[in-house]
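#data-curation
PF: Archiving a pair of folding outputs for the training set. Convention for this channel: one message per protein, sequence first, C-alpha coordinates after, nothing in between. First:
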Amino acid sequence: MNKHRGISLPHPVIGNGTDVKGSFELKISANIENDNLVLTQDGDIAFYNDYFKKLYEEKKIITSHKITSSGTLYAELFNGKLEKVINTNLLSWNVEIETYLIAADEILDYGDDTFNEDFLVEDPNRKFSVEKGMIVGFGGTTTLIFDTIYLTSLSGIIEFFPIAIDQPISFDTDGPKIIIKYPKKVGSIDIVSVLSHKTSKFKETFLGLFIIPALSAAYDALKKAEEENNYALFVEQHNWASIIHTLGPEWEGKNSFVLAQQFLKLMIERKYNKPSLIPIISSFEELQKFMN
Protein backbone atom coordinates (compact mmCIF):
# COMPACT_ATOMS: atom_id res chain seq x y z
CA MET A 1 0.00 0.00 0.00
CA ASN A 2 1.35 3.40 -0.96
CA LYS A 3 0.57 5.70 1.95
CA HIS A 4 0.26 8.82 -0.19
CA ARG A 5 -3.24 9.79 -1.18
CA GLY A 6 -3.98 10.52 -4.83
CA ILE A 7 -5.76 13.64 -6.02
CA SER A 8 -7.40 14.41 -9.37
CA LEU A 9 -7.30 17.85 -11.01
CA PRO A 10 -7.56 19.08 -14.63
CA HIS A 11 -3.90 20.16 -14.60
CA PRO A 12 -0.61 18.46 -13.66
CA VAL A 13 0.23 18.37 -9.95
CA ILE A 14 3.78 17.82 -8.73
CA GLY A 15 4.00 14.96 -6.26
CA ASN A 16 0.88 13.30 -7.68
CA GLY A 17 2.01 10.12 -9.40
CA THR A 18 3.54 10.73 -12.82
CA ASP A 19 1.88 14.11 -13.44
CA VAL A 20 5.18 15.99 -13.21
CA LYS A 21 8.83 14.97 -13.20
CA GLY A 22 10.49 15.78 -9.90
CA SER A 23 9.17 16.45 -6.43
CA PHE A 24 9.48 18.73 -3.42
CA GLU A 25 10.15 18.12 0.26
CA LEU A 26 9.17 20.08 3.32
CA LYS A 27 10.00 19.04 6.87
CA ILE A 28 7.70 19.85 9.76
CA SER A 29 8.88 20.23 13.35
CA ALA A 30 6.39 19.41 16.12
CA ASN A 31 6.89 20.08 19.82
CA ILE A 32 4.70 20.00 22.91
CA GLU A 33 5.13 23.17 25.00
CA ASN A 34 2.99 23.24 28.14
CA ASP A 35 -0.51 22.48 26.82
CA ASN A 36 0.20 23.46 23.24
CA LEU A 37 1.28 21.67 20.10
CA VAL A 38 3.73 23.91 18.23
CA LEU A 39 4.08 23.23 14.52
CA THR A 40 6.78 24.93 12.44
CA GLN A 41 8.35 24.52 9.04
CA ASP A 42 11.84 23.13 9.51
CA GLY A 43 14.15 24.90 7.06
CA ASP A 44 13.45 25.74 3.42
CA ILE A 45 11.47 23.74 0.92
CA ALA A 46 13.68 21.47 -1.19
CA PHE A 47 12.54 21.55 -4.82
CA TYR A 48 13.61 18.91 -7.33
CA ASN A 49 11.93 20.69 -10.22
CA ASP A 50 13.23 24.07 -11.43
CA TYR A 51 9.87 25.26 -12.75
CA PHE A 52 8.10 24.89 -9.40
CA LYS A 53 11.09 26.34 -7.58
CA LYS A 54 10.82 29.44 -9.77
CA LEU A 55 7.05 29.68 -9.19
CA TYR A 56 7.66 29.55 -5.46
CA GLU A 57 10.46 32.13 -5.54
CA GLU A 58 8.24 34.44 -7.57
CA LYS A 59 5.51 33.94 -4.92
CA LYS A 60 3.11 32.58 -7.51
CA ILE A 61 2.60 29.48 -5.37
CA ILE A 62 2.63 29.02 -1.59
CA THR A 63 2.37 26.15 0.84
CA SER A 64 -0.92 25.12 2.39
CA HIS A 65 -1.41 22.73 5.30
CA LYS A 66 -4.59 20.87 6.18
CA ILE A 67 -4.42 20.01 9.90
CA THR A 68 -6.90 17.47 11.24
CA SER A 69 -7.47 15.40 14.37
CA SER A 70 -10.30 12.98 13.64
CA GLY A 71 -10.97 12.00 17.25
CA THR A 72 -12.13 15.51 18.12
CA LEU A 73 -13.19 16.55 14.59
CA TYR A 74 -10.59 19.33 14.72
CA ALA A 75 -9.80 20.68 11.24
CA GLU A 76 -8.02 23.80 10.07
CA LEU A 77 -6.35 25.08 6.91
CA PHE A 78 -3.14 27.08 7.28
CA ASN A 79 -1.63 28.85 4.27
CA GLY A 80 1.96 30.01 4.03
CA LYS A 81 5.08 29.06 5.99
CA LEU A 82 3.88 26.88 8.84
CA GLU A 83 3.94 28.52 12.27
CA LYS A 84 0.97 27.23 14.21
CA VAL A 85 0.19 26.78 17.91
CA ILE A 86 -2.74 24.50 18.83
CA ASN A 87 -4.06 23.81 22.32
CA THR A 88 -3.80 20.05 22.88
CA ASN A 89 -7.24 20.02 24.51
CA LEU A 90 -8.61 20.44 20.99
CA LEU A 91 -6.80 17.33 19.74
CA SER A 92 -7.12 13.59 20.12
CA TRP A 93 -4.23 11.10 20.28
CA ASN A 94 -3.15 11.78 16.70
CA VAL A 95 -2.92 14.67 14.25
CA GLU A 96 -2.50 14.55 10.47
CA ILE A 97 -0.92 17.37 8.48
CA GLU A 98 -1.42 17.24 4.71
CA THR A 99 0.94 19.55 2.83
CA TYR A 100 0.13 21.11 -0.53
CA LEU A 101 1.34 23.78 -2.92
CA ILE A 102 -1.43 26.10 -4.05
CA ALA A 103 -1.67 29.02 -6.45
CA ALA A 104 -1.23 32.30 -4.57
CA ASP A 105 -3.03 34.06 -7.41
CA GLU A 106 -4.38 33.15 -10.83
CA ILE A 107 -1.72 31.61 -13.10
CA LEU A 108 -2.62 31.91 -16.78
CA ASP A 109 0.52 30.32 -18.24
CA TYR A 110 0.97 27.23 -16.06
CA GLY A 111 3.09 24.88 -18.15
CA ASP A 112 6.49 23.24 -18.40
CA ASP A 113 8.27 20.49 -20.34
CA THR A 114 8.45 18.44 -17.12
CA PHE A 115 4.69 17.85 -17.31
CA ASN A 116 3.59 14.35 -18.31
CA GLU A 117 3.03 14.13 -22.06
CA ASP A 118 -0.51 12.87 -21.46
CA PHE A 119 -1.41 16.43 -20.51
CA LEU A 120 0.16 17.80 -23.69
CA VAL A 121 -1.60 15.72 -26.34
CA GLU A 122 -1.45 17.47 -29.75
CA ASP A 123 0.06 20.59 -28.14
CA PRO A 124 3.53 20.23 -26.54
CA ASN A 125 3.44 23.94 -25.62
CA ARG A 126 0.08 23.80 -23.90
CA LYS A 127 -0.47 26.20 -21.00
CA PHE A 128 -3.05 25.73 -18.26
CA SER A 129 -5.05 28.34 -16.42
CA VAL A 130 -4.94 27.75 -12.66
CA GLU A 131 -7.25 29.70 -10.40
CA LYS A 132 -6.15 31.19 -7.08
CA GLY A 133 -6.17 28.58 -4.32
CA MET A 134 -6.06 25.53 -6.60
CA ILE A 135 -3.64 22.74 -5.74
CA VAL A 136 -0.49 22.44 -7.87
CA GLY A 137 1.61 20.27 -5.55
CA PHE A 138 1.12 17.42 -3.09
CA GLY A 139 3.78 16.95 -0.41
CA GLY A 140 2.27 14.01 1.44
CA THR A 141 0.98 13.57 4.96
CA THR A 142 2.74 13.90 8.30
CA THR A 143 1.14 12.01 11.19
CA LEU A 144 1.82 12.92 14.81
CA ILE A 145 0.94 10.54 17.63
CA PHE A 146 0.85 11.84 21.21
CA ASP A 147 0.04 8.84 23.36
CA THR A 148 3.25 7.00 24.29
CA ILE A 149 1.23 3.80 24.69
CA TYR A 150 0.47 3.85 20.98
CA LEU A 151 4.05 4.80 20.14
CA THR A 152 5.91 2.19 22.14
CA SER A 153 3.55 -0.59 23.16
CA LEU A 154 1.27 -3.04 21.41
CA SER A 155 -1.09 -2.68 24.38
CA GLY A 156 -2.30 0.45 22.65
CA ILE A 157 -3.83 -1.53 19.80
CA ILE A 158 -4.43 -5.04 21.15
CA GLU A 159 -6.71 -6.43 23.87
CA PHE A 160 -7.44 -9.98 25.04
CA PHE A 161 -10.84 -11.51 25.69
CA PRO A 162 -11.26 -15.02 27.17
CA ILE A 163 -13.81 -17.37 25.60
CA ALA A 164 -15.01 -20.91 26.25
CA ILE A 165 -12.30 -23.57 26.45
CA ASP A 166 -13.69 -25.47 23.44
CA GLN A 167 -13.49 -22.44 21.11
CA PRO A 168 -10.49 -21.70 18.85
CA ILE A 169 -8.47 -18.50 18.96
CA SER A 170 -10.02 -15.78 16.78
CA PHE A 171 -9.46 -12.10 16.04
CA ASP A 172 -11.92 -9.22 15.96
CA THR A 173 -10.70 -6.22 13.94
CA ASP A 174 -13.99 -4.31 13.82
CA GLY A 175 -13.33 -2.00 16.78
CA PRO A 176 -10.73 0.60 17.83
CA LYS A 177 -8.44 -2.19 19.06
CA ILE A 178 -7.65 -5.67 17.75
CA ILE A 179 -9.38 -8.14 20.07
CA ILE A 180 -7.72 -11.52 20.54
CA LYS A 181 -10.30 -14.06 21.70
CA TYR A 182 -8.60 -17.02 23.32
CA PRO A 183 -9.86 -20.18 25.08
CA LYS A 184 -9.73 -20.30 28.87
CA LYS A 185 -11.08 -22.88 31.26
CA VAL A 186 -13.01 -21.37 34.16
CA GLY A 187 -10.95 -21.51 37.33
CA SER A 188 -7.76 -22.55 35.54
CA ILE A 189 -4.50 -20.71 34.93
CA ASP A 190 -4.80 -18.05 32.24
CA ILE A 191 -2.31 -18.76 29.44
CA VAL A 192 -2.17 -15.11 28.35
CA SER A 193 -1.47 -13.85 31.86
CA VAL A 194 1.25 -16.43 32.42
CA LEU A 195 3.08 -15.98 29.10
CA SER A 196 2.84 -12.20 28.95
CA HIS A 197 3.68 -11.44 32.59
CA LYS A 198 6.77 -9.29 33.13
CA THR A 199 8.50 -12.22 34.87
CA SER A 200 7.64 -14.69 32.09
CA LYS A 201 10.49 -16.60 30.50
CA PHE A 202 8.44 -17.15 27.35
CA LYS A 203 7.55 -13.65 26.17
CA GLU A 204 8.86 -14.27 22.66
CA THR A 205 6.80 -17.46 22.46
CA PHE A 206 3.78 -15.43 23.53
CA LEU A 207 4.37 -13.01 20.65
CA GLY A 208 4.51 -15.89 18.18
CA LEU A 209 1.40 -17.61 19.48
CA PHE A 210 -0.85 -14.59 19.81
CA ILE A 211 0.49 -11.28 18.52
CA ILE A 212 1.84 -12.20 15.09
CA PRO A 213 -1.35 -14.06 14.04
CA ALA A 214 -3.43 -11.12 15.32
CA LEU A 215 -1.38 -8.62 13.33
CA SER A 216 -1.66 -10.87 10.28
CA ALA A 217 -5.46 -10.78 10.62
CA ALA A 218 -5.24 -7.00 10.94
CA TYR A 219 -3.35 -6.72 7.65
CA ASP A 220 -5.97 -8.96 6.04
CA ALA A 221 -8.63 -6.47 7.18
CA LEU A 222 -6.62 -3.54 5.80
CA LYS A 223 -6.19 -5.26 2.44
CA LYS A 224 -9.91 -6.02 2.29
CA ALA A 225 -10.68 -2.35 2.96
CA GLU A 226 -8.35 -1.36 0.13
CA GLU A 227 -9.96 -3.85 -2.27
CA GLU A 228 -13.34 -2.37 -1.41
CA ASN A 229 -12.03 1.19 -2.01
CA ASN A 230 -12.69 1.97 1.65
CA TYR A 231 -9.13 2.19 2.96
CA ALA A 232 -8.94 5.85 4.01
CA LEU A 233 -12.26 5.71 5.88
CA PHE A 234 -11.36 2.38 7.51
CA VAL A 235 -8.06 3.79 8.82
CA GLU A 236 -9.83 6.87 10.14
CA GLN A 237 -12.43 4.80 12.01
CA HIS A 238 -10.06 2.24 13.57
CA ASN A 239 -7.28 3.38 15.91
CA TRP A 240 -5.28 0.19 15.42
CA ALA A 241 -5.43 0.63 11.64
CA SER A 242 -4.18 4.21 11.92
CA ILE A 243 -1.17 3.04 13.97
CA ILE A 244 -0.28 0.27 11.52
CA HIS A 245 -0.78 2.61 8.58
CA THR A 246 1.46 5.23 10.18
CA LEU A 247 4.22 3.15 11.78
CA GLY A 248 4.17 -0.02 9.69
CA PRO A 249 6.20 -0.91 6.58
CA GLU A 250 5.06 -0.36 3.00
CA TRP A 251 3.19 -3.47 1.93
CA GLU A 252 3.11 -3.63 -1.85
CA GLY A 253 3.19 -7.30 -2.84
CA LYS A 254 3.80 -8.67 0.67
CA ASN A 255 1.54 -11.20 2.36
CA SER A 256 -0.07 -10.43 5.70
CA PHE A 257 2.00 -12.86 7.76
CA VAL A 258 5.26 -11.31 6.54
CA LEU A 259 3.96 -7.82 7.24
CA ALA A 260 2.88 -8.85 10.74
CA GLN A 261 6.42 -9.97 11.56
CA GLN A 262 7.94 -6.81 10.12
CA PHE A 263 5.54 -4.56 12.01
CA LEU A 264 6.18 -6.36 15.31
CA LYS A 265 9.93 -6.04 14.77
CA LEU A 266 9.54 -2.29 14.14
CA MET A 267 7.46 -1.86 17.30
CA ILE A 268 9.99 -3.73 19.43
CA GLU A 269 12.82 -1.64 18.03
CA ARG A 270 10.84 1.54 18.68
CA LYS A 271 10.18 0.53 22.28
CA TYR A 272 13.75 -0.45 23.16
CA ASN A 273 15.51 1.91 20.72
CA LYS A 274 17.82 -0.77 19.35
CA PRO A 275 17.81 -3.34 16.50
CA SER A 276 15.94 -6.59 17.11
CA LEU A 277 15.81 -10.01 15.50
CA ILE A 278 12.96 -11.31 13.37
CA PRO A 279 10.47 -12.58 16.02
CA ILE A 280 10.76 -16.27 15.06
CA ILE A 281 14.53 -16.17 15.67
CA SER A 282 14.26 -14.48 19.07
CA SER A 283 11.54 -16.98 20.00
CA PHE A 284 13.77 -19.91 19.05
CA GLU A 285 16.68 -18.48 21.02
CA GLU A 286 14.36 -18.17 24.00
CA LEU A 287 13.31 -21.82 23.73
CA GLN A 288 16.90 -22.99 23.25
CA LYS A 289 17.66 -21.90 26.82
CA PHE A 290 15.33 -24.65 28.04
CA MET A 291 16.33 -27.26 25.47
CA ASN A 292 19.98 -27.56 26.47
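PF: Second:
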Amino acid sequence: MKLHNNTTIDDDLVRRLITKAGRAAGARTNGVVVFVNQGSGYRSSGVAHRCDMVRIYNGKRSRRASRGRWNRTDGGYFVIRMPRTAIDGTGNPFPDPVDQATNFFRVAVHEFAHIRDYQSIRAGERLDWSRKINGRRPAHSVRPEEERAFATVAECCDHGDAETRACHEIVDLAIALEEKARA
Protein backbone atom coordinates (compact mmCIF):
# COMPACT_ATOMS: atom_id res chain seq x y z
CA MET A 1 0.00 0.00 0.00
CA LYS A 2 1.23 3.45 -0.89
CA LEU A 3 0.23 5.80 1.94
CA HIS A 4 0.25 9.58 1.64
CA ASN A 5 -0.48 10.85 5.13
CA ASN A 6 -1.11 14.61 5.14
CA THR A 7 -1.98 14.73 8.85
CA THR A 8 0.08 15.06 12.01
CA ILE A 9 -0.78 11.51 13.10
CA ASP A 10 2.09 9.00 12.93
CA ASP A 11 2.41 7.28 9.53
CA ASP A 12 3.07 3.85 11.01
CA LEU A 13 -0.09 3.98 13.13
CA VAL A 14 -2.27 5.05 10.19
CA ARG A 15 -0.69 2.39 7.94
CA ARG A 16 -1.36 -0.40 10.46
CA LEU A 17 -4.98 0.66 10.95
CA ILE A 18 -5.72 1.03 7.24
CA THR A 19 -4.03 -2.28 6.43
CA LYS A 20 -6.19 -4.06 9.00
CA ALA A 21 -9.27 -2.38 7.51
CA GLY A 22 -8.31 -3.61 4.04
CA ARG A 23 -7.80 -7.16 5.26
CA ALA A 24 -11.14 -7.04 7.08
CA ALA A 25 -12.86 -5.98 3.83
CA GLY A 26 -11.17 -8.77 1.88
CA ALA A 27 -9.25 -6.50 -0.49
CA ARG A 28 -5.66 -6.80 -1.65
CA THR A 29 -3.84 -3.89 -0.04
CA ASN A 30 -0.51 -4.12 -1.90
CA GLY A 31 -1.02 -1.76 -4.84
CA VAL A 32 -3.70 0.51 -3.39
CA VAL A 33 -2.83 4.19 -3.02
CA VAL A 34 -4.34 5.85 0.07
CA PHE A 35 -4.44 9.60 0.73
CA VAL A 36 -5.17 10.56 4.35
CA ASN A 37 -6.12 14.22 4.76
CA GLN A 38 -7.20 16.27 7.74
CA GLY A 39 -10.94 16.92 7.63
CA SER A 40 -12.75 19.90 9.06
CA GLY A 41 -15.65 17.93 10.53
CA TYR A 42 -16.05 15.61 13.47
CA ARG A 43 -16.67 12.54 11.32
CA SER A 44 -14.48 10.64 8.91
CA SER A 45 -15.40 10.55 5.26
CA GLY A 46 -13.90 9.00 2.19
CA VAL A 47 -14.24 8.45 -1.52
CA ALA A 48 -12.84 5.62 -3.64
CA HIS A 49 -11.78 5.94 -7.27
CA ARG A 50 -11.28 3.23 -9.86
CA CYS A 51 -8.14 3.73 -11.94
CA ASP A 52 -4.98 1.97 -13.11
CA MET A 53 -2.55 4.79 -12.38
CA VAL A 54 -2.57 7.98 -10.34
CA ARG A 55 -0.22 10.95 -10.66
CA ILE A 56 1.37 12.02 -7.37
CA TYR A 57 3.33 15.19 -6.68
CA ASN A 58 4.57 16.07 -3.16
CA GLY A 59 2.19 13.61 -1.52
CA LYS A 60 -0.89 15.02 -3.23
CA ARG A 61 -2.72 14.17 -6.42
CA SER A 62 -1.54 16.28 -9.31
CA ARG A 63 -3.74 17.30 -12.22
CA ARG A 64 -0.99 19.20 -14.05
CA ALA A 65 0.47 17.27 -16.95
CA SER A 66 4.06 18.29 -16.29
CA ARG A 67 4.27 17.51 -12.57
CA GLY A 68 4.56 14.38 -10.50
CA ARG A 69 5.11 10.77 -11.32
CA TRP A 70 2.69 8.02 -12.17
CA ASN A 71 2.04 5.30 -9.60
CA ARG A 72 0.41 2.07 -10.68
CA THR A 73 -2.54 0.99 -8.56
CA ASP A 74 -4.24 -2.34 -7.93
CA GLY A 75 -7.88 -1.47 -8.45
CA GLY A 76 -7.74 2.20 -7.58
CA TYR A 77 -7.10 4.67 -4.81
CA PHE A 78 -9.12 6.34 -2.10
CA VAL A 79 -9.06 9.51 -0.08
CA ILE A 80 -10.04 9.34 3.59
CA ARG A 81 -10.35 12.29 5.95
CA MET A 82 -9.22 12.20 9.56
CA PRO A 83 -11.75 13.82 11.91
CA ARG A 84 -10.89 16.84 13.98
CA THR A 85 -11.23 16.41 17.72
CA ALA A 86 -12.79 18.76 20.25
CA ILE A 87 -12.67 17.72 23.89
CA ASP A 88 -15.04 20.47 25.08
CA GLY A 89 -18.79 20.19 24.58
CA THR A 90 -19.11 22.20 21.37
CA GLY A 91 -21.83 20.12 19.74
CA ASN A 92 -19.48 17.36 18.70
CA PRO A 93 -21.55 14.28 17.74
CA PHE A 94 -18.52 12.11 18.61
CA PRO A 95 -17.15 13.63 21.84
CA ASP A 96 -15.17 10.49 22.59
CA PRO A 97 -11.94 10.03 20.57
CA VAL A 98 -12.48 6.25 20.67
CA ASP A 99 -15.77 6.75 18.79
CA GLN A 100 -13.97 8.92 16.24
CA ALA A 101 -11.22 6.32 15.77
CA THR A 102 -13.82 3.55 15.38
CA ASN A 103 -15.68 5.67 12.83
CA PHE A 104 -12.40 6.18 10.93
CA PHE A 105 -11.85 2.39 10.88
CA ARG A 106 -15.40 1.75 9.61
CA VAL A 107 -15.00 4.33 6.82
CA ALA A 108 -11.70 2.69 5.81
CA VAL A 109 -13.42 -0.74 5.67
CA HIS A 110 -16.21 0.81 3.55
CA GLU A 111 -13.76 2.35 1.07
CA PHE A 112 -11.74 -0.87 0.87
CA ALA A 113 -14.98 -2.70 0.05
CA HIS A 114 -15.24 -0.44 -3.02
CA ILE A 115 -11.59 -1.18 -3.88
CA ARG A 116 -12.35 -4.91 -3.54
CA ASP A 117 -15.18 -4.45 -6.07
CA TYR A 118 -12.80 -2.68 -8.46
CA GLN A 119 -10.24 -5.47 -8.04
CA SER A 120 -12.84 -8.14 -8.76
CA ILE A 121 -13.89 -6.27 -11.93
CA ARG A 122 -10.28 -6.41 -13.10
CA ALA A 123 -10.33 -10.16 -12.43
CA GLY A 124 -13.33 -10.54 -14.77
CA GLU A 125 -16.17 -10.82 -12.26
CA ARG A 126 -19.52 -9.29 -13.24
CA LEU A 127 -21.01 -7.04 -10.56
CA ASP A 128 -24.25 -5.08 -10.44
CA TRP A 129 -23.81 -1.28 -10.56
CA SER A 130 -26.25 1.60 -10.36
CA ARG A 131 -27.64 3.07 -13.55
CA LYS A 132 -29.29 6.37 -14.32
CA ILE A 133 -33.08 6.29 -14.39
CA ASN A 134 -34.68 9.13 -16.36
CA GLY A 135 -31.35 10.97 -16.32
CA ARG A 136 -30.95 10.80 -12.53
CA ARG A 137 -28.81 8.54 -10.42
CA PRO A 138 -30.51 6.64 -7.61
CA ALA A 139 -30.11 7.74 -4.01
CA HIS A 140 -26.75 6.97 -2.48
CA SER A 141 -28.01 4.39 0.00
CA VAL A 142 -29.86 2.25 -2.57
CA ARG A 143 -27.08 1.89 -5.14
CA PRO A 144 -25.94 -1.75 -5.44
CA GLU A 145 -22.27 -0.87 -4.93
CA GLU A 146 -23.10 1.00 -1.74
CA GLU A 147 -25.30 -1.82 -0.48
CA ARG A 148 -22.36 -4.22 -0.95
CA ALA A 149 -20.08 -1.85 0.96
CA PHE A 150 -22.62 -1.38 3.77
CA ALA A 151 -23.02 -5.17 4.01
CA THR A 152 -19.24 -5.58 4.25
CA VAL A 153 -19.03 -3.06 7.09
CA ALA A 154 -21.94 -4.75 8.87
CA GLU A 155 -20.39 -8.19 8.42
CA CYS A 156 -16.91 -7.12 9.51
CA CYS A 157 -17.63 -4.62 12.25
CA ASP A 158 -21.12 -5.31 13.58
CA HIS A 159 -21.27 -9.10 13.38
CA GLY A 160 -17.59 -9.96 13.05
CA ASP A 161 -14.50 -9.39 15.09
CA ALA A 162 -12.63 -6.97 12.81
CA GLU A 163 -12.81 -4.16 15.37
CA THR A 164 -11.61 -6.58 18.02
CA ARG A 165 -8.60 -7.54 15.91
CA ALA A 166 -7.83 -3.86 15.26
CA CYS A 167 -8.60 -2.67 18.79
CA HIS A 168 -4.97 -1.81 19.62
CA GLU A 169 -4.67 0.39 16.53
CA ILE A 170 -8.06 2.01 17.21
CA VAL A 171 -7.06 2.85 20.79
CA ASP A 172 -3.68 4.16 19.61
CA LEU A 173 -5.42 6.40 17.07
CA ALA A 174 -7.83 7.63 19.77
CA ILE A 175 -4.89 8.53 22.00
CA ALA A 176 -3.21 10.37 19.13
CA LEU A 177 -6.44 12.26 18.34
CA GLU A 178 -6.85 13.28 21.99
CA GLU A 179 -3.23 14.43 22.26
CA LYS A 180 -3.73 16.46 19.09
CA ALA A 181 -6.88 18.06 20.51
CA ARG A 182 -5.15 19.00 23.77
CA ALA A 183 -2.15 20.52 21.98
